[in-house]
Amino acid sequence: GAGVSQSPSNKVTEKGKDVELRCDPISGHTALYWYRQRLGQGLEFLIYFQGNSAPDKSGLPSDRFSAERTGESVSTLTIQRTQQEDSAVYLCASSLAPSGSIYNEQFFGPGTRLTVL
Amino acid sequence: AQSVAQPEDQVNVAEGNPLTVKCTYSVSGNPYLFWYVQYPNRGLQFLLKYITGDNLVKGSYGFEAEFNKSQTSFHLKKPSALVSDSALYFCAVRDIERGSTLGRLYFGRGTQLTVWP
Predict the structure, then answer these.
(1) Mutation test of the interface with chain A: which of B45, B46, B93, B94, choosing the one with the most A Cβ atoms within 10 A?
(2) Minimum CA–CA partner of A43 in chain B
(3) CB-hemisphere CA count at 13 Å for B17?
(4) Which of A22, A78, A99, B25 is deepest in the core (most CB within 10 A)?
(5) pLDDT tens-digit profile of A22-45?
(6) Contact call for residues A31 and A52 (beta carbons, < 8 A)
(7) Taking 80 as the threshold, does the pLDDT of residue B89 lie above it?
(8) Which of B51, B74, B53 is nearest to B64 (CA)?
């Protein structure tokens, strides 16, 4: 596609419910990233997928958070038993793969605004 | 550990005046440095990056940034600000030293730039 797309754009849920957020990366981008942006704060890294390698999950804040990616396409971020502190904008980005000394910039989607009541 | 600091939460300038948005970084090896801009209700857009070479990097929309290794800084600049430059600006760094976690960027908290007409 022309850019990174995310759905839904907005999600309001009740505390304790599970939510799934979707990201469609730019075609041909093998690297995919999820970040969280809380109100008034910078971006917080969550997870990184690169091709068939094991994902870097070091940024996931708790075991309620998980993410999957099918091949080099769509990714879903799942938050189980949502809490109010999960309220944030969840941003997805994709890039061409880092290769040696070459590092390619990340292209971001518009984000999903999650509100947990 | 890698980190980025943006010491100013807000920068206010008059249209036509030069602007500077400050960024300092800390990495264990050589840095890759980035600037992104976020307009209201939109995802982050890439502005420019420093990988190697000339310390003055030119990017989109007339922005440039100067890499200063001795001061570990990467300040964003523009000679003449426009009202349409008003947005949230993020500095980010990746440590390219071998063995560091591939792919992830470390973002600053962001600086809100307001350009007055």
Answers:
(1) B46
(2) B107
(3) 12
(4) B25
(5) 999 999 888 899 999 998 788 899
(6) no
(7) yes
(8) B74
